[in-house]
Design a protein that fits this description.
Shape: globular
CATH superfamily: START domain
CATH topology: Alpha-D-Glucose-1,6-Bisphosphate, Chain A, domain 4
CATH class: Alpha Beta
Structural class: alpha+beta
Strand order of the largest sheet: 1-6-5-4-3-2
CATH architecture: 2-Layer Sandwich
Length: about 200
């Protein structure tokens, strides 16, 4: 059963910040990001149900090459993340930039995007956006982030204290936005994801 605030209450916000929306089984499932960071200091998990087929949802994940789809006023210089699919963004290749600060390191069409970043501020982060089909019309979007904090003690301490909740604040908005857009396109009975361009 997925963990929510109603389930655990406000006193366990740290658990929510690390596992929002996910089940225990999803948190135990190996994902491609595991191959990119052997000894993480932290693992964060997020998930949402999406009333859209895997190909439609995957096509919206490809849009992360262009924009973050979170709070645009905060992480996209005030520019609105596009609400229509951008031609060509599904032509993926290892080495492409994702959300500006990440590099695409692995992908499988209609299954996952995996990206990596190394930063003196955030440390090393490897993340997978995995699509788990429920049936022909529904999917689960499960995200796993592995984090190796910076080795500077004060920076690492601040990151440990702030990153899980800060990331949840941003990623919850991102996943709900992608969910909304994928469900909109699926509800329009589009023949293929590309036809919504």
């Amino acid at each position: 059963m997925a963990v929510t605030l109603a389930d655990v209450g406000w006193s366990d916000w740290r658990s929510i910040a690390r596992t929002w929306g996910t089940t225990a089984a999803e948190r135990e499932q190996p994902l491609p990001c595991d191959r990119w960071l052997d000894h993480p200091d932290e693992a964060l998990f997020r998930a949402v149900d999406v009333e859209a087929p895997a190909p439609v949802l995957f096509r919206w994940l490809c849009q992360l090459r262009l924009a973050p789809y979170s709070y645009d006023w905060l992480d996209n210089f005030g520019r609105r993340s596009p609400r229509r699919l951008t031609p060509g963004l599904d032509a993926l290749a290892v080495g492409q930039r994702v959300m500006t600060m990440l590099t695409l390191v692995d992908f499988e069409r209609d299954r996952h995007l995996t990206a990596l970043t190394r930063s003196p501020i955030f440390g090393t982060i490897a993340g997978t956006y995995a699509i788990i089909p429920v049936d022909a019309q529904r999917s689960r979007l499960v995200v796993k982030l592995l984090i190796q904090y910076p080795r500077t003690p004060i920076v690492a301490l601040l990151q440990r204290a702030l990153l899980p909740a800060g990331d949840l604040f941003m990623m919850r908005k991102q996943l709900l936005t992608l969910k909304e857009l994928a469900e909109r396109d699926a509800a329009l009975h589009l023949g293929s994801p590309a036809s919504s361009v």
